Amino acid sequence: MIISINNLHKKFGSVIAANIDSYVIGHGDMVGLVGNNGAGKTTLFRLILDLLKADEGNVTVSTKDGSLNDADVTSTEEWKRHTGAFIDESFLIDYLTPDEYFAFLGRMFGMKKEAVNERLEHFRPFFNGEILGEKKLIRDYSMGNKQKIGIVSAMLHSPELLILDEPFNFLDPSSQAIIKHLLAAYNRETGATVLISSHNLDHTVEVCPRIALLEHGVILRDIANVDGSAKTELDTYFDAPVQAAEAAETQPEEPEEPEIPDIPDNPENPEKPEKPE
């Protein structure tokens, strides 16, 4: 799916959350959004998913099959059947068990029960025996397992566009390694467009061939990441404030200038000024 961002602006009060004149994500691109807290990563995802109303501009999408061509996401619902997303646990129906939830999603996307079960088998190593077949409501799972359920729910119907906000959060190191492999393989094998955000530069650089650096809602840099080449550029950018602070602390203080005593008008009797002649 092609995503075109056009003159997109969003503010919350005086805070600028999105300020993007033009940005295009092509068919099959795998893009990692990085930036500090408040950079606008989640806001951008919510604007793309039509979960927030933009103050100005729009987001348009075009599908591979040609059923949608530069369609504004606010003007049609058709793009949603091509899209999978997980932003946070509010996306989950937490009074269901995971099996019930996956079955519900499968029916919503027109998948047969056998197709759902076959697809879930693909994620069994990721679940690590803790999710499928358990008679436990989603709300009673740990944050890490809720994260797994959310990620798989977004990928269940093999969407043409996959959006994941902070997918590595709450996962143990083994699960992080598995999901990195799954995401890269999914993008490679299906040609899907994949967007992820993360504060973890190492994970993002490892799986995303393209990196968008956001600050204050602006895409400052669009970086081609060849064999992890973006890591150096990103490290330099995020380390700059630290290096500036350290340089300020180590800079020697300038010596104080010595005081120059006042010279009296009448050196012979400093208390009495000279009389004019």
Helix-strand layout with pairing:
Layout lengths: L1 E11 L2 E11 L4 E5 L6 H8 L7 E7 L8 E2 L10 E4 L11 H11 L4 H9 L2 H4 L15 H13 L5 E5 L7 H18 L2 E5 L3 H7 L2 E6 L2 E7 L5 H21 L27
Parallel strand pairs: 3-8, 3-9, 6-7, 7-8
Antiparallel strand pairs: 1-2, 1-4, 4-5, 9-10
Could you please describe the fold and organization of this structure?
The protein is of the alpha/beta class and 277 residues long. The model has no long low-confidence stretch (mean pLDDT 92). The strands form two sheets. The chain has a six-stranded mixed beta sheet with strand order 6-7-8-3-9-10, sandwiched between helices. Strands 2-1-4-5 form a four-stranded antiparallel beta sheet, with helices on one face. A hairpin with a 2-residue loop joins strand 1 (2-12) and strand 2. The chain starts with a strand and ends in a 27-residue tail after the last helix. The protein is 33% helix and 23% strand.
Largest sheet: number of strands, sense, barrel closure: 6 strands, mixed
Number of helices: 8
Give the helix/strand class: alpha/beta
Q: In which range does the helix fraction lie?
A: 25-40%
Mean pLDDT: 92
- How would you write the strand order of the largest sheet? 6-7-8-3-9-10
Low-confidence stretches are none
Strand content: 15-25%
Distance between the termini: 97 Å
- The geometry reads as elongated
Beta strand count: 10
Topology pattern, helix = H, strand = E = EEEHEEEHHHHEHEHEEH
* Rg (C-alpha, Å): 28 Å
